[in-house]
Amino acid sequence: YTSKRNAIFVLFIGLLYGIIIGIARIAQGGHFLSDIVFSGLILYSIGLILSKIFKFHIQVYV
Question: Tell me, what's the pLDDT at 42?
Answer without folding.
Answer: 95
